Amino acid sequence: MFEVRNDEPKYAFLNDPETKAQNRYGLNIELTDASSELRCKSLNINGDTAIGENPNRYKQHGFYFNADNCIGCHACESACSEKNDVPAHIAFRSVGYVEGGTYPDYQRLNISMACNHCDDPVCLTGCPTRAYTKFAEYGAVLQDPDICFGCGYCTWVCPYNAPQLDPVKGEVSKCNMCVDRLEVNLKPACVAACLGNALDFGVIENIPENRIQAKTEIPGFPNTEITQPNIRFQQTRTTHREMTRTDDMPLKYHRDDEEGKFKPVVDEKQGRERHWNLRKLLTSHESAHVIFTLCTQATVGAFSMLMLGIWFNVDPAVMLKNSSAFLPLVLIIVAVSTWGLFKLNMHLGKPHRFYRGFNNLRLSPVSREIAGVSMFYTGLLGYAVFGLFDNAILSVIANVFAVIGVLSGAIGLYYMYKLYRIPARPFWNHWQTGTAFFGTMLSFGALMVATVSVCVLPLAAAGAQALLQILAAIMVLGLAVEGIGHIAHARAMQTSENEGAASYYHQVTEYGKSYILRNGLLALNLVLAAVIATMGLLGTTGYLLGLVLVTTMLVMAAFGRSLFFVLVIPTTMPGAFFWKNKGFVEHARATGLADAPQHGVAYERHHTFKVDELIKTIKEHSIKDMFEHVKWIFGK
User: For the chain, first and last CA: distance in Å?
Assistant: First the structure.
């Protein structure tokens, strides 16, 4: 247990003599029945099997923040980081701020925020490894970094940026409510360290002594309906009608007098000039997701079209099945799918723990996507192996694998769509995500089949033109579906009253030229595919037209899917000019400031440090040393 000092001040102890029965969301504050077996269990903190004597041990606790008192001293951050021994680039609790007005009527509102141990923790339901648990003790949502394999999905779904993905260790960790201190009736370290008496802690809905409010929102705080967070606020001082952020996020908060709430609106702090920003666009942290989603959607589409065409005895598909192009096509589908899965796995903080992605099939769309795509890959491989033999029994086995592949591919793509419908990321939380994925499946699945067919079969071969025209028609359908979704999405984001509007602003300014190129190529590809669907491909002109289509499709996909990932703006808490500011993090990594740990920025080294060390060993040491280092790598 945590050791209580003899001189521990009185304000550091929990004190909730009376509590309410329900919180404002209608949920019971008491988390267990009096007869529950959970009341006899220890949290086993540091191996101690004792049970805390706090009379409110099984009631939902939460933080209380008095915005009137916070002076922005960051003592809460320091106390939290010291107690939890976190590196300089990670902070379980952070202090950001919004500001309004001008001199002499300038106002700054500081906001200290950590994990809110929500009633509906989306990090728990989203995590594929089941690294999260909501305990009956204090209602704490705790996370085990040793179970985490570093996918970072919890950092996507959390509206408050509570889970912290360490780019060095490749794992997530977060605030643990200081349950070791709670067990001995002490408040969390951040609360005990607060100089201005701005932070407090206790049973939720209890208003601390000398406080008069228990709000659920203040300017800059995301929508509470997403997770029902266990934090309450006091803010009696009148704020300006508009409060702005000092980080690089193009948002400010405007007070709606009818609802009495501050709503996010776009802050055009970067002007209206259009840019390419190709380096940021095409080499982002999420490039692995770009490759994985495109490869998976294309291969599921190609394999499904091929199998359905054969099963329903469509003449061009049967012709293709009996041609010399069939085997190369299946092998290319396998190769592309393998490449996508490899890139996704190596994107994990702990790639060797990939199997943990199946741990939360009951709740997590990520686990279900992984299961669906893995079963598709299994069906694809099975068909590729058994379909090579001219044997009746093996042919039946191959078709069973094909059925598994087609069905599980559809399931995998459905949950791929579902996992991006995240309320905390409004730019993704639109049906256009589904049309983009479905359209890509159709257009790139057909493109893959058509490309291999043209490369292997003569254009004049019997049935070749009919095959290409059908595939081009499917491409037209896929591109049309994707285009309609893009138009509706742009209109919805442009008029939205959330972070989606800020994403749209980035789309037409910071990446404006790239966005225009993507749209132009989509229209061009739609025309080219329609021409081929109508007239087919003939001679040298046909080959040139096909080459142009393949090239422009690939460029369009690279730009479009990269925009999908780099544009999303989450509903995170405001940062400061240096701290919790994405713009400063990018600047520090680009200029070398990240080499100085005091800046609180680290390079993403968990994918490269082992390879770098191996290359260095090869250059500087003997072959024997090299093999010893290889053994060390696999040992890690």
Answer: 31
CA distance 134 to 336: 40
How would you label 246-271 residue by residue, b for 16+ Cβ within 10 Å and e otherwise? bbbbbbbbbbeeeeebbebbbbeeee
Report the predicted TM-score, pTM, of the whole model to 2 decimal places: 0.91
Closest alpha carbon to 377 in 326, 349, 330, 338: 338
CB atoms within 10 A of CB 55: 12
Residue 184 has a pLDDT of 92
For residue 465, which amino acid is it?
Q
**Tokens 């266990």, located at residue:** 230
Residue-level pLDDT at 206: 94
C-alpha to C-alpha distances, 452 to 399, 458, 553, 572, nearest whole angstrom:
22, 11, 15, 45
Helix (H, G, I), strand (E, B) or coil at 287: helix
Whole-angstrom Cα distance, residue 577 to residue 269?
14
The amino acid at 435: T
Residue 624's pLDDT is what? Answer: 53
Q: Which residue has the tokens 């089941």?
A: 130
DSSP designation for 2: P
* pLDDT value of position 92: 95
The predicted pLDDT at position 620 comes to: 53
Q: Are the C-beta atoms of 160 and 121 separated by less than 8 Å?
A: no
What pLDDT is attached to residue 608?
45
Q: What are the structure tokens assigned to 501, written together?
A: 């509007």
The secondary structure element, H or E, covering residue 290 is: helix 287-311
Q: Name the stretches of the chain with pLDDT < 50.
A: 608-614, 616-618, 626, 629-630, 632-636
* Cα–Cα nearest to 344, from 412, 425, 434: 412
pLDDT of residue 579: 81
Residue 628, pLDDT score: 55
Residue that is written with structure tokens 């004597």 in the block: 53
Tokens 């997530």 belong to residue: 172
Cα–Cα distance, 361 to 350 (Å, whole number): 20
Burial 329-346 (b: 16+ CB within 10 A, else e): bbebbbebbeebbebbbe
Write the DSSP assignment of 160-190 as a string of letters.
T--SEEETTTTEEE---TTHHHHTTTBPPHH
Spatial CB neighbours of 545, under 8 Å, sequence gap ≥ 6 = 528, 531, 532, 537
Both structure tokens of 12: 């550091």
pLDDT the model gives residue 627: 55
Full DSSP string of 242-253: EEEESSS--EEE
Calpha distance 435→181 (Å, rounded): 49
Q: Which amino acid is at 399?
A: N
Could you write out the three-class secondary structure of 406-441?
HHHHHHHHHHHHHCCCCCCCCCCCCCHHHHHHHHHH
Distance of CA 424 to the CA centre of its chain: 10
Cis peptide bond upstream of 55, omega within 30: no
